[in-house]
Amino acid sequence: MSKQPRQLSLGAFLMAGGHHVAAWRHPDVQANPLDFSSYKRTAQIAEAALFDAIFVADSVAASTDAIASHTSRSVYFEPLTLLAALSAVTERIGLISTVTTSYNEPYHVARKFASLDHLSGGRCGWNLVTSDAAAEAYNFGRDAHIPHAERYARAREFHKVVTGLWDSWADDAFGRDKEAGQFYEPTKLHVLNHVGEHFNVQGPLNVARSPQGRPVIVQAGSSETGRELAAETAEVVFTAQTSLAKAQAFYADLKGRLAQFGRREDSLKIMPGVFVVVGQSTSEAREKFEQFQELVEPQVGVALLGRMLGNFDLSGYPLDGPLPELPLTENGQQSRQKLLTELAGAENLTLAQLGRRIAGGRGHYSLIGTASDIADELQAWFEGRAADGFNVLVPHLPAGLEDVANYVVPELQRRGLFRTQYQGSTLREHLGLSRPANQFF
Amino acid sequence: MSKQPRQLSLGAFLMAGGHHVAAWRHPDVQANPLDFSSYKRTAQIAEAALFDAIFVADSVAASTDAIASHTSRSVYFEPLTLLAALSAVTERIGLISTVTTSYNEPYHVARKFASLDHLSGGRCGWNLVTSDAAAEAYNFGRDAHIPHAERYARAREFHKVVTGLWDSWADDAFGRDKEAGQFYEPTKLHVLNHVGEHFNVQGPLNVARSPQGRPVIVQAGSSETGRELAAETAEVVFTAQTSLAKAQAFYADLKGRLAQFGRREDSLKIMPGVFVVVGQSTSEAREKFEQFQELVEPQVGVALLGRMLGNFDLSGYPLDGPLPELPLTENGQQSRQKLLTELAGAENLTLAQLGRRIAGGRGHYSLIGTASDIADELQAWFEGRAADGFNVLVPHLPAGLEDVANYVVPELQRRGLFRTQYQGSTLREHLGLSRPANQFF
């Protein structure tokens, strides 16, 4: 048997209506963010196109700032109920959800993901994040946001408790011997008895070890602390990288940190986000994109810019003036802040122009062109050690993803870079990740 | 138009394998408690039979006592992920889940139920409970269980916060005016700013007001405090009643408490649990039941008895001796303790016999007979002001529920007591409950 050449992974980043901030205003877009049938259709498109996974972001607070009422992001499905519902109408595709460690209890989180892994036959993944919005703190009895360092210490312990709970039962604990009346073997049960800085959790989990052993651990932090946590515990990393060179540096840095934790390079997959608009020609793609750009209200673009720079309120500055000088953000967005400041200076952009510029891909690398152009870029990143795969954002859903499925995926398949059928049935199998052994048995 | 005569409601109480403690040992029973296809089949049977709802119980801890390994109750799906998955493969039936107020945060709970209500098109209900197992406390950083009175005070405030969050948005807040770029109307958003004894929650919820306005509130407490909370806040009450007379007394008591809260009698539906085994003849039904009874190991029945009496360990007492004298339980099971003590004395039962006796219906009223016999009893309770409907438990699933669907439901329909098609599309409509107005708009 010939060895299969290295294949890239594809995730479809779902967001009601699409990722472009003005998508909901487009005449073709179903603008109700709580319409299950749109999600179902999108998930089925991604599955038909053999994507590794669909992915949803999350926050445990509603945006209510000055421009919130001009965007479609205030209300949405809670992600675990959404993915559970989608698990019943899909067969093979992975299901990845963000859940914060800052304002949750590890027993609940371990349980819900284990349950989803059973419901889906081993298809789920957890994007383990720390919260970066103070509004979340106020919904959980706190007067102020947890500081950055403590959030990460809590996240690390949270991960330890959750993985410990997932390993509560040996894989073969449940013999279900009807004759003998023995449902499980008591020696194959481990009581965690975790006592730590942030959590005391007895266990065991009331869910059997799940099909994947453990749901896939995804992370998206890019600070020094975030990279260290990822190198120790993540199996997939989502990241926003704005050039091949930067993506290569990030890739090398993160892969280079794995050895100190006794991990192999291929045990962690790096998947930058890419914002993709496909056309039959480059000009057609640009025209498609411009249709959305024209719908961006200047104050909405500027507010989005303020959030991306680190939760700054830019509403007091003139729209046709330059980006004001801002203090260095404390919110873990320093590299993005630096990048956008450089961009504004280099191209002499007004505040409104810069806001419109980031309204599409929300800081992710943008590919606007033909399927062949886009495949060239993805291939260069993949073969140039900048990516193991991509998390795909499109301006509007489901139509934008249909374009990727119809044009970009076949081009990647022709080049031998992407599967032509699912080989496995679990998310781990799609991603080429091994099933973790139980730490207690 | 003639007025529709009063109709009874039916809930199907789902539990992996069935309610009989030995169901999993029966050769016909699929004994894997984490098999989604069994749940899907059961839910679809209940929906085809026009049940108002399916219902799942819950605990946030696994039983690991001496006989846990001889029962099938240690592991199961987390209920909100399970019901979300079932929402995608059903169309009309209600979806009710237990979630404790003792070891949860109101923002998470409000959000998940609101999300499920949107996913299901207005079909969900929340069985609001307080935890009664200390093992749950140990999974959430506590050394001891919250005392009974404090649990109820917390539950009451929890309900207030959750319903406040559900009313964060006016029903018509989301105009989604594409031309004007106005997604929602800012004056139609209410920020809760709850500051209380147990919770501080800012809000608003990041889910729009749900199809039912609010998911249906279900409760199951029977203590004085529990009844007061139900009279103030519940819309459905599940209860275990062991005779018509006791059920009538409970019904009169609870309905009598409503007026003080300005509520009408029909705003709260009382649904006792009934354990049902149907046969073509009484003797066939008894034989079916005996097949399960023979599979009960004596020590399992006795352990179940100990739990039902108020979490007592009876394993040290002789199986062929009498029920020992026990101190009055502190766990809110006093009435059940009194009832079982009387039963054991009146029939001179040994500990093993009493344990086996309660192994089937778990303390619920048992109906073992022909469809006609069973319908007679249900009708007597329904017309005798003991019940507005019933929560149906069967020894094994899905087969036991198929029997109810095939034989008991048609008999109730012939008598004009139960619908012959769904009239509405939401759980509230099935139950005849009005859609609550938004308290802030």
Structural class of chain A: alpha/beta
Q: What is the CATH superfamily label of the domain at 9-275 and 418-431 in chain A?
A: Luciferase-like domain
CATH class of the domain at 9-275 and 418-431 in chain A, named: Alpha Beta
Instruction: Provide the low-confidence segments of chain A as ranges.
Output: none
Helix residue percentage of chain A: 25-40%
- Beta-strand percent range of chain A: 5-15%
Strand order of the largest sheet of chain A: 1-2-3-4-7-8-9-11
Cα-atom radius of gyration of chain A: 22 Å
Q: What would you call the quaternary organization?
A: homodimer
Series of H and E elements of chain A: EHEHEHEHHEEEHEHEHHHHEHEHH
The assigned CATH architecture of the domain at 9-275 and 418-431 in chain A is Alpha-Beta Barrel
Query: How would a crystallographer describe the biggest sheet of chain A?
Result: 8 strands, parallel, barrel
Put simply, the count of helices of chain A is: 14
Question: Of all protein chain pairs, which has the greatest interface, and how many residues does each chain bring to it?
Answer: A-B, 79 and 79 residues
Notes on the protein architecture:
Two copies of one chain form a homodimer. Chain A has a domain at 9-275 and 418-431: Luciferase-like domain (TIM Barrel), CATH 3.20.20. Helices cover 37% and strands 13% of the residues of chain A. The first copy, chain A, has 14 helices and eleven strands. In chain A, the strands form two sheets. An eight-stranded parallel beta barrel of chain A has the order 1-2-3-4-7-8-9-11, surrounded by seven helices. Chain A has helices at residues 36-48, 79-87, 106-119, 134-138, 148-166, 224-233, 244-256, 282-293, 298-308, 334-347, 351-357, 371-383, 399-414, 427-431; strands spanning 9-14, 53-56, 94-100, 124-129, 194-195, 200-201, 216-219, 236-239, 269-279, 365-370, 389-393. In chain A, helix 9 (298-308) packs across helix 11 and helix 12 packs across helix 13 (399-414). Chain A has 441 residues and is of the alpha/beta class. The model of chain A has no long low-confidence stretch (mean pLDDT 94). At the A-B interface, helix 2, helix 3 and strand 6 of A face helix 2, helix 3 and strand 6 of B. Chains A, B: It holds the Pfam family Bac_luciferase. Chains A, B: Keywords: Flavoprotein, FMN, Monooxygenase, Oxidoreductase. Chains A, B: Belongs to the NtaA/SnaA/DszA monooxygenase family. Chains A, B: FMN binds at residues 58, 98, 148, 152, 222-223. Chains A, B: This is Monooxygenase.
